[in-house]
Specification:
single chain
Length: about 120
């Protein structure tokens, strides 16, 4: 997760940061644009001339204080099999908790992938 905060009093700014990422790679397609692992956080601002703004971009991993962090990102499918886009909601820094594809480009169902959260593996309890 990523958020912007006021650098003077550290309060959240409310400015949206759009996250896009990819962790797929297609070795048999050398030179494919945007192939491989990458993470992009974009914050767009519209400011009048000579404006002054002081803020910090903060990356949150597993916890935000005592709470598990939550994030939303666009997940690139370059290198997965077909190009396209899934939306992803993550809990903490453990990867996606749920992926969905609103336009149904690759799958017939809305939900494309889920992962359990805070569970033990088989035989580990």
């Amino acid at each position: 997760a990523a958020y912007a905060r006021n650098s003077t009093d550290l309060s959240p700014s409310g400015m949206h940061i759009q996250i896009s990422k990819n962790w797929h790679s297609k070795e048999e397609w050398p030179g494919l644009p945007y192939d491989g692992k990458w993470y992009s956080a974009v914050l767009m601002l519209e400011l009048p001339p000579e404006s002054k703004l002081s803020f910090e971009v903060v990356l949150v991993y597993q916890f935000f204080g005592a709470l598990h962090s939550v994030s939303h990102a666009q997940l690139s499918l370059i290198g997965w099999g077909q190009n396209g886009l899934w939306e992803e909601v993550g809990l903490g820094s453990r990867g996606e908790a749920i992926c969905y594809e609103a336009d149904g480009q690759h799958r017939r169902g809305l939900v494309t992938d889920t992962r359990p959260f805070l569970v033990c593996g088989m035989g580990s309890a």
